[in-house]
Design goal:
Length: 389
């Protein structure tokens, strides 16, 4: 007797990997309960759509890496680029005093969306809506950080073109903990101190409520550029580096028919702040690096608290509040005084006045009856200082 295999049976056998004398018998699979935490409200409804790449950094991961503040977390994100990132030091002399921001894929902080528990955070007040100040997020309250490395502008808008960083805090905590960190440098300056305290009460399972609060205080000591050999001067002739300024003390003068810019006090410049250089031997050049801060001083206080109430097994209600206050003092070189900065009228000294260098101008082939332009540095008024609170 001859048997003929039906086409449907053959197709199923091929699809299931059944052939010849090998037959696999399946066993029933037991259902397993899976808990899924959804942060936010944009839930996908298309079955065939794949998952977007998300990098998750847990609290334990950050502690093992020695991370002590939110700014350091950015260095642990593979999609983060130095181009477009911003920190407190880069804000010197600008409106971005005390600003610390993230830039995914090098597209800038204004295109990197930062969320706290799935909700937007207000942009830094002095950044012209260019991004969120990461200093406002207390590190000690974090449970994990989720990073969407792909663009999410279709969901969140143009500020998420580079991706999304979602900082997720603890949902419940019971007990108390205190952390004290002290960091200092071998040669002094630039030290850091951090004091953190967390306390929590109530059990969601037993008491049907939980409340916790975290307070964090951070203090950054300043580091002067003059305190380090690598940064103490802007003039390194052996390397061909001359970033000194022509706005100096004593003032350089130009005009009145003189060739170029010169200084009547040369070579008696006010060392160590000003001196002649190989490129400008007849001037006094101001060394701005001798008076600036490499790391500015700062004090930051952040507090975050959360109260959660278990209404029933499927529903919770919560109240969340945050507070942040930062003091930043950034100082750069004293104010330059010259026509390049007044823009309207040049800064001049007229003939016949007490400080007009008539003899010097005549010795340089100039006309001592004409005014000369000044390039001055207001060293006596101190450094230009920005204080942000």
């Amino acid at each position: 007797m001859k048997f003929q295999r039906k086409k449907l049976a053959g197709a199923l056998a091929y699809a299931l990997g059944v052939g010849g004398a090998f037959v696999f018998v399946g066993t029933p699979v037991q259902a397993v309960d899976i808990k899924v935490d959804v942060t936010g409200s944009n839930i996908k409804r298309l079955e065939g759509e794949g998952a977007l790449p998300v990098q998750t950094l847990t609290r334990q991961d950050l502690q093992n890496a020695g991370v002590t503040d939110v700014g350091q977390i950015i260095d642990k994100i593979s999609a983060s680029q130095s181009f477009g990132n911003f920190n407190e030091t880069l804000g010197e002399g600008s409106n971005f005093v005390g600003f610390n921001a993230a830039s995914l894929r090098g597209l800038g902080s204004q295109r990197t969306l930062v969320l706290l528990n799935g909700k937007r955070i207000a942009a830094y007040a002095l950044s012209d809506s260019s991004g969120v100040d990461l200093n406002a997020i207390p590190f000690s309250a974090l449970e994990r950080v989720e990073v969407l490395k792909d663009g999410a502008s279709a969901i969140y808008g143009t500020d998420a073109i580079a991706g999304v960083i979602n900082f997720i805090t603890r949902t419940d905590y019971t007990g108390a903990e205190v952390n004290i960190n002290y960091l200092d440098t071998e040669h002094g300056g630039g030290g850091q101190r951090r004091y953190t305290g967390t306390a929590g009460w109530g059990d969601l399972t037993k008491d049907k409520w939980n409340a916790w609060i975290t307070a964090d205080y951070f203090e950054q000591a300043s580091l002067r550029a003059s305190d380090r050999q690598i940064s103490k001067t802007a003039y390194i002739p052996e390397l061909g580096i001359d970033r000194t300024s022509g706005n100096s003390l004593p003032a350089n003068i130009s005009g009145a028919g003189m060739p170029g810019t010169r200084n009547p006090s040369n070579p008696g410049c006010l060392a160590p702040f000003s001196f002649p250089t190989l490129r400008s031997p007849k001037q006094c050049r101001f060394d701005f690096a001798s008076v600036i801060d490499t790391i500015p001083p700062a004090q930051k206080t952040s507090i975050i608290g959360r109260a959660t109430f278990q209404i029933n097994p499927d529903h919770q209600a919560f109240i969340e509040a945050t507070y942040f206050h930062g003091d930043y003092t950034q100082a750069i070189s004293p104010t330059p005084v010259s026509g390049a900065f007044t823009f309207i009228l040049p800064v001049q000294i007229a003939p016949g006045t007490a400080y007009y260098p008539a003899a010097f101008i005549a010795s340089q082939g100039g006309d001592p009856t004409k005014p000369v332009n000044l390039s001055f540095r207001g060293l006596e008024f101190g450094r230009r200082t920005d204080v942000a609170k």
